[in-house]
Amino acid sequence: MSEPTLRDVARACGCSVATVSRVLAGTRPVGAETTRRVRRAAEELGYRPNQVARALRSRSTGTVGLVLPQITNPFYPTLVRELTHALHADARAVLLADCDDDPAIEASRIESLLARQVDALLVVPVDAERSAEAVAAAAARVPLVLLDRSCGPGVADSVAVDNTAGMALVLDHLAAAGRRRFCFIGAAGTTSSAAERRAAYEATATAHDPLAAERIELGDFSVEWGREAVGRLWAGPEGTTAGDRPDAVVCGNDLIAVGALQQLRQLGIGIPRQAAVTGFDDIPMASVAEPAVTTVRQPVSELAAEAARLLDRRLTGADPATAPQRTLRLAPELVVRASTSPDPNSPPSTQKAAVQ
Amino acid sequence: MSEPTLRDVARACGCSVATVSRVLAGTRPVGAETTRRVRRAAEELGYRPNQVARALRSRSTGTVGLVLPQITNPFYPTLVRELTHALHADARAVLLADCDDDPAIEASRIESLLARQVDALLVVPVDAERSAEAVAAAAARVPLVLLDRSCGPGVADSVAVDNTAGMALVLDHLAAAGRRRFCFIGAAGTTSSAAERRAAYEATATAHDPLAAERIELGDFSVEWGREAVGRLWAGPEGTTAGDRPDAVVCGNDLIAVGALQQLRQLGIGIPRQAAVTGFDDIPMASVAEPAVTTVRQPVSELAAEAARLLDRRLTGADPATAPQRTLRLAPELVVRASTSPDPNSPPSTQKAAVQ
DNA sequence: GAGTCTTCGGAGAACGATTTCCCGTCGTGG
DNA sequence: CCACGACGGGAAATCGTTCTCCGAAGACTC
Fold this sequence. Notes:
Two copies of one chain form a homodimer.
Chain A: H1 6-13, H2 17-25, H3 32-45, H4 51-58, E1 63-68, H5 76-89, E2 93-98, H6 103-115, E3 120-123, H7 132-139, E4 144-147, E5 157-161, H8 163-176, E6 182-187, H9 192-208, E7 216-219, H10 223-235, E8 248-251, H11 254-266, E9 276-278, H12 284-288, E10 295-297, H13 300-316, E11 327-330, E12 333-336, E13 349-352
Parallel strand pairs in A: 1-2, 1-3, 3-4, 4-5, 5-11, 6-7, 6-8, 8-9
Antiparallel strand pairs in A: 10-12, 12-13
Chain A binds a DNA duplex (30 and 30 nucleotides) through helix 2 and helix 4.
């Protein structure tokens, strides 16, 4: 009736559970004839090892928790895909938790995953500050890798794109195309990617345009905010002449860029003639917007592969706990599309950031 | 050092593990004074029940497997979000598996989830035919709910949108707007949503346009295919005059519609003046395309809620195995946008399909 | 030929919770 | 005064593996 167990197989082939376990797990050599008998019996009964029992005994579930701020952010599906495939290849399963961008939910999800005895956690923290406590507590209990965003220094291993380099690619590209009056639409809050991109913009753009730091609008990573922010920037101080308007709208991510684009078009601003627009992440939407958005592509596969590698080191490595923490910064790539390029017919070109 | 167990708590408060378990699980009344002592000890030690041990003993992991064809299809993230939230509310965790649109991978993922003793499975099958065997085998072992797509009759409980009703909404809307020459770009293969939408198009469109069934292009659910298919349709037979071109391009989903839109614009076809374009699903991309795509919105929250409810009935319900299988069809909603509406300034309107 | 290895297999103790018995101790009614 | 039920609590079996001991038997060395 019910699922056959090791006992059933042992009974069927007339030997002990220990022997069956050894044959099936291959942990110790077993006589040829016995091996054959065990294999046959297991096959005939359709025996499948119970992973829960195995996990209890071996103190390892072969399961990794993946904690995301909001899976509906179009940047994450690809990441999830790459991660699950990488982890499945190591015979690990993925417990998924979505946090609805709320640090409190995030803390409770992490707690729940730990209670389920995950072997490790992959966390994209909601917020650098408000996630820090829960993440640090979790990192003290299991190997933990921060992904895409970080969360205070020295908390855990971390893999992310080099936001500063990415922003530099964008700004250099815009400057090379003759843009001189920059503005930035980003996300408020302390989310590390938001903060890093903002800081990189301030630092780099000021070199090209002394007033760049004064034209910064901060909201959240959404299409709606992109629209609203353009409204604010273009409402501007009274008496502003067209010549004072920004000619380059640098956005904190692609969602914002898409919103900005919509609003600019509605205001009758020619893209890219009167204003160039750039995004960040290279989500699918960026390439179907009209005009297609120039953006910074994150190396998602590498991100996932490195995260899996870091986990593996901690889980199977020589010195799991004592090994020094690693922080990896991956080089992004500029994807030039029609929203900044004067010639919409030229094929989109990409440019890799220098490897650091 | 290591995580405290029931034994540790029992030792700390001077009573037996049985008592501690009873207090914490609340399975049997325990004296007031003892209860207090146990609670304090548990609190002080920071005791957290080990879910793996609990699962082994109680034969229930509180875990549900979610099997998706391809999480990078923008329709799924919202579904995943709703599902995880609904299941977390029932104190269940979600093991996620992505199949890369491959029935073989799907079968192996399902097998792996079953070995991990999931209490139930939520499956969006890759293909109605080639997924049937693995899904049926799984359904025989645990409660299983098919989501969004089905997979042969009588295999398992199933919740999906009413594709036929959705297609009817689209076609009626187009006909009411005076469109007369329909064409359809869909997905080949036996995936149930692909097949149902295709069939519904054939049946319904023919009523408005006798030639509708002759203008069908089948590929896959992607932007690229949308572009390519438009190329084919507009390449058409030699000598075709503009008056013979379709004036309505009905697409199997939004991705296809976006691709179609791009190609039509490139060909210089005015949207919606010369040709209307419609999609299906209402993914975020549909509303940011230019022009925004008229589409059929799937009731994703309801889909998730109903799936969770079906699972719950099987898991906690009166007669888990014997209860008759249920097939739910949810009513979709038409979202009219600029790709079919002559007046781009009028706010997008929505129209609910009649509840059946 | 006696002692020492090696090899193969079994018995049984974990792992950490739940749950079924069972045993005292009261209180109470006959 | 005794029997009986209710109640609080403990001992131990159980879930299905893994893994550590142990023992027996054959192979080898000196």
